[in-house]
Each structure stands twice: as structure tokens, then as C-alpha cells.
# Entry
Amino acid sequence: MRSGYYKETIARHVDLTDALSQRVWIAIALAALALAPLYFDYYGLSLITLMAITAVGAMGLNVLTGWTGLISLGQTAFMVLGAYSYAISTESWGWPPLAGLALAGIVPALASVVVGIPSLRLTGLYLAITTMASAFIVNHLVLEFDGLTNGSSGIFVNRPTILGFAFDTDQKFYYLCIGVALLTVLACLNLRRSRIGRALVAIRDNDNAARVMGIDLRSYKIYAFMTSSFIVGISGALYGIFLSFVTVDGFPFLLAIEALAILIVGGIGSIAGAILGAIFLVGLPEVTSMIFSLLGDGAQGLLSTSAHEIKGLLYGLVIILFLRLQPHGLMGLWQDARRVWTLWPLRY
Amino acid sequence: MTRHLLQLENVTKKFGGISAVNGVSLHVDKGEIVSIIGPNGAGKTTLFNLISGVLPVSSGQISIEGQDLARVPGHRYAQLGIGRTFQNLALFKHGTVVDNLLVGCHWRMKTSVLEAAFHFGRARREEIAFRHTVEKIIDFLEIEHIRDKTVGTLPYGLQKRVELGRALATSPKVLLLDEIVAGMNQEETEDIARFILDTRDDLGVSILLIEHDMHLVMDISDRVHALNFGSTITEGLPHEVQSHAGVIEAYLGHGSGEGPAAAAPIQTGAVA
# Structure
């Protein structure tokens, strides 16, 4: 609730940010991201890298599930396709990494057309189950075409050199991932304020009215699938580079659940929510292990033996708590906090 | 035969064995306000769904400016000049008023996905140009004060007005208004009546109206079309339809046929 604020031209309405304070905060955040490698050790940096990669994937899913309202459990398929497209094109065919990254977006985008076609008739849970099938189909295809994909043994991936700049250390790779994440944020923000973004949200809110407004539901649902899968594919490729090894085991089905959890926890439909959710859910196991380590050796032993189960349990718990207590997620919490801050003590 | 702006010929819609709309013919000419009246379940909204491409017709022909709509996909109707509002609000309730109106401009904008992602060239130019278009509509409907409000938080009467604005944003030649004043008080109804007349007179948009508010129907319609059980009872000037025996029977029931009551016109407002 700002006051004394005037926009003098229509063009100002179209801008992404209009407030000086917002610009200052963005500058501070960018500076913090740029300086992070100086303050974090190897482990901390890899955690932030992972958060950035996850945020890219979450923003991708957000285009489909958050904006268009199509729930997909099949986005791991596009991560796998992205990762393999990158690995095969750069490692086996010797393509330059930039072209590999582009391919890691394009291949999943094209594949998503096939997965997207059922979405023209299905919504809600039915669509979720249909897309889930694609995750398993892609994994089997990867294992089956072992001449191309090396089957279950996977492909080693080197750190890329893009435009003559080698991202060969963890620090440099961190910058690559942050860069891609920032580009994704910008692209998503731009899409959201365009006719395309509005059309997708219109389909979610009221598909009948959207069609009467002249929006072609079929094309736009397919657009949503393609855009989402393009972004998710890129995040898959980055994740493959991060692991330096691409195999189907690196992309378990749990990732699809995790991605939905990120959106719910962050606040569905919001770009900032997707980022916050990614930071929250990637950071959650770390915070938990810190708490466990405070509890003593016995608890720490339990954590190391059943880390995977505890992680799954935590996700479940967090989703339930958020759905029950704050359905608008972290973004909802943030808005509530802001409202309280503005109104307290009776400023208006 | 002269070519009408919007023409329906023998339009029928069957759901299973039931004819919701049965052989209805009507037309709207440029600059006309035509009302469709009829009791609940008469098939009025189904007729609108047919005209706006939400449902396919079973038989018969609908055409706008002479173009047959039979082979036109639903999302192209807006381009051909058919705009509509819905009986129960169908706004994009999470968006602001401006967002909703901009969705109405969708088909007139041409920005592609790539241009949009980079907010480059045409994307930015179009965005600014159509903000101007939207501002004109906001000005026309006198909703400047709620411009940036989320639609879902607005009172019902204003939401209806936003929906009218969204339909106007599609730049229609014929505007279909489905019970736009339902649930409104006298003052709000009069406001809307004024907007409807201005839409016709200033914007040159013809209007097809479904309405239960007989005051409104009688005051602003050029012609009235009465439906019952999916079929046309009569069509004509407002006062002719008002005093038509079949219309009175449809609203008040059979049996009032004896005595002088049948000849008396239905009281305006009695069936509102």
C-alpha cells in the first residue's frame, strides 16, 4: 500500500518494476549472489547451485501447473530428456555445450507435445496420472536404446565451456546456474505480463470464457506444455552437469512429487513462490540434519541410515501443513506479513 | 433477402432426446437492441451458447455478416465479431480489472511466445497500445477507481460491469448479454441500461439481450423475441410481445384464458 505514487505514461504500467526501493533490493540480491562464492565453502556453494537448478525446474512446472492449471507428474521425463540430450550431444557427438543446452530445451519441448495431447481432453487427477505414465515410459526408452544412451550405465558429463569461458570449477559452475536461473526468471516474468501468460491464466481460471475471448484452448495448452518442458529440460541438463553423471537413477520419480511440493509450499502460480519453495525444500534436509546433529549421536545415526525415508516423510509433512494452514504458501505468508507491517500500528 | 448482421435460421439443439432449442429463427441488424425473454428453462442461455460457439448446433444455421459459423472453431467466434457475457460471472477472478480486459484484447494482439519471453519489439509496443484500448473502455464504463483491483474481491454489480468491459474489449459487432442486470438494484440496473444504450449509440455495437427484468426489456429493446420450451412463441415490438396471449400463458400459466384477464397485458415487472 504505497501512496503518493503516480504513473505518467502507459508504458510505466508495462514495466516489471516501478519502485526505487524494489530496484535497490534487486541490486542487493544480485550483489549477494555475485559475492556468495567468497563467503560459502564448497558445500554451501553446491547447495546454492542445487537451489538455483531446482528453482529453474520449479519455474518450468509453474508455467504448466501454476499458470495453466494442468497438474503434471511427468516433468521428470523432461528432465531426463534434457539431461540426456545435453549429455549425448556434447559428450558423444562433440557438440558445443551451448548448442547442447539449446537441444536440452528443444527435445523435451517437442516430446511434450506428445504428452500434452491427452491434456486437451483431461484435467485434474486424470491428467496427473496420464502424465505420470510418461515419466516411466521415458525411463524405459532410455534403458532400451542403450546404443545411444549407454543404458543403465549412464554417461559422464564434463563441465562445459561456453563462448570460450570454461565453467570448470564449482565456483564457475555456480555462476552458470545462477545466470540460467536469472534468465529463466526474466523470461517467466516477461511471459506472465504478455498476452501468452494472460491467456494461460485465463484457461486456468475459466476455460469456457477464455475460449469465448478468442483463446484457442488446444494451442495454448500445448504452448504451456512446450514452454514448461523447455525450461524443465534445461534444468535437467544443469542437474546432469551438477552430478557430472547422467543416468535414469539420477532422476527418481520422487522429483516430480518434490516439484509439486515446491509449488505448493512456495505459493502456486507465483514465480517468486517457485523460487522460495525451491530454496525452502532444498534447504529443508540440511536444516533437519543440523537439528538432528544437535540432538546427539543416536539421532544422527538414524539420519544417516534412513536419510531417504526421512526426506520423503518431511516433504509429506510440509505439504500437509502448508495445505492445511497456509494454502497460498510462502508467498501467502509474505503477503500476510507485509499487510501486518503496513497496517501496524494503524498507519491508515 | 437483405443480409442481417446476425442471423439464425431454424436453429435446433438436442441433448439426447430433448430439444433445448427447437427451430429458432431470429436476426439482429446493425444498431439494434433485441431482447430474448422466456421463463426459466426456455432455452435462452443454450441459444447464447450456440451463438457464441460454446456448443455446436444440432441443425440449422447461424451466420454473422453472411458467414456461416458451422465450420468455424469456437475460439474464432470472437474474431468474427461475437462477444458475450455470462449469466453467472465467468471472469478471471485472480486477475486485476485491467488484466481481464486485456484478455479480451487477446485475439487482436499478435505477439509470439519468443517475443513475449524477451519482451522485445512488438511485444512491448502491443502491450502499450492495448493498455490504451483498455483505458478507453475503463473510461467508458466508469470503473477507473477499481482499475488495479483483483476482480474476485469486487462487489457483484461491479464484476458484472467488468465483464461487460471484457466483452467490449473483444471489439464485437454483436454483443450477447446474458441476464446482465440480474441481482442488481434499481440504480445499478439504470447504470447498466445507460451503458447498453451507449454501447449501441457510441460504439455502434448491436446487442442481443437475455433478460428477466421486464422494465429494462420494454424500455430499451427495439424488438423482443419470446421463447418457451425451446421454441419461439412470438417476435415483435416490445408492446406487441408484452400483450401476446402465448407469452402471457407461458409466464402466468394456462387457465387464465377465460374472462377478460387474458386480454390484459402482463404487468411490467411482474415476472422480473
